[in-house]
Structures are given as structure tokens and as C-alpha cells.
Design goal:
Layout lengths: L19 H29 L3 H35 L3 H29 L5 H34 L4 H14 L7
Helix pairs in contact: 1-2, 1-4, 2-3, 2-4, 3-4
């Protein structure tokens, strides 16, 4: 039981896997927060150096893009992209898939910098180039998220029946070892 004296530390997302498109959008909000953190990390490193806050921020960004982002991409590739193709939106589906591939490649290039920061062993000579790569990574991700929210989610979600949405949510939850809310 939660009281005003002992509030919840973290309430979690307000949507569950029983609302798969809303869950994908909630993942986008978490991605945006991780991208913001990545960009703030660059400024922090420049101003404060590789201190405990920088190491913690790098670990948070690593955790998100190592664990949650690949699951999110998998959700989209198994559910969203086939729906788009079935609705004659093959070009959009191909563009989103290509974005995923570029983002995964770019993440593999960024990851070593963040591992170095998380371990406290960042080479100051590398920082300027790393921050530029982070900015490009964040810009691509933001363009991709905007395209999904403006075009892909509405197109793919239109006309789905409650049983189809339920099956989609159950598969997304199963990939994470979670049970959808009922």
C-alpha cells in the first residue's frame, strides 16, 4: 500500500501490452528521454569531465539502447512493418527497416565510447568526435520516431480487430517475459 509518506519510487508506464500501439508510443517517449540524456552527457563531459554523474548517465544510455531499443525494433519489424506492407505501404516499411539497420550500425559505433565513459576511462581526445556521432544518432532516431508516430502507427493500426491487437500485445509481452494486463 502506498501512502503520501511512502510514494511509489517508479510507477511505470501508464499503458500496458493490451494497448500495443500505445505501448510502442510509450517506448518512443523513453527513447526520447535516453536521447536527451545522451546529448546532455556530451555537454556534461565537456563542462564537468567524466565524473560519477557522467558514468551513471552513460550506463543508463547503454542499458536502454542495449536492451529496450532492440526489443522495440523487433516489435516493429514483426508487427508494424508487415501491417504496413499488407496495406500497400511497402515503401514506408522499407524506409523504417533501413532506418533500424542504420541505427543498429551507428549504435555499435557509439557503444564503445559510452562503455569507456561508464568505466571512467574516456579519452578526452575522442570526446569531440563522439559527441558529433551522438548528435547524428539522436537526429536520425528523432526523424524515425516522428515518421512512425505520424504515418506508420496510424496506418498500421487502422482496421485491426481487438483479437489482432490482443495477439500483438501478447507477443510483445512474451518477448519481455511479461504478461499483458487484463
Amino acid at each position: 500500500m502506498t501512502t503520501a509518506r511512502h510514494p511509489l519510487l517508479h510507477a511505470g508506464p501508464s499503458v500496458g501490452f493490451d494497448q500495443p500501439f500505445e505501448m510502442l508510443a510509450a517506448c518512443h517517449a523513453r527513447m526520447e528521454r535516453s536521447l536527451d540524456l545522451l546529448e546532455r552527457l556530451g555537454r556534461h563531459l565537456h563542462d564537468q569531465g567524466c565524473d560519477a554523474q557522467a558514468r551513471s548517465a552513460a550506463a543508463d544510455v547503454l542499458r536502454y539502447f542495449d536492451i529496450a531499443a532492440p526489443l522495440h525494433h523487433q516489435d516493429e519489424e514483426l508487427h508494424l512493418l508487415p501491417l504496413l506492407r499488407a496495406q500497400g505501404q511497402a515503401g514506408l516499411a522499407a524506409r523504417l527497416r533501413a532506418d533500424h539497420q542504420v541505427m543498429e550500425h551507428d549504435w555499435a559505433r557509439l557503444r564503445p565510447d559510452l562503455l569507456a565513459i561508464a568505466s571512467g576511462s574516456l579519452d578526452a581526445q575522442v570526446l569531440a568526435g563522439a559527441v558529433a556521432r551522438w548528435t547524428q544518432f539522436a537526429a536520425l532516431y528523432r526523424r524515425h520516431l516522428a515518421a512512425e508516430e505520424a504515418r506508420a502507427f496510424p496506418a498500421a493500426g487502422s482496421g485491426l480487430t481487438p483479437p489482432q491487437l490482443q495477439a500483438m500485445g501478447e507477443e510483445m509481452a512474451a518477448r519481455r517475459g511479461a504478461a499483458p494486463r487484463r
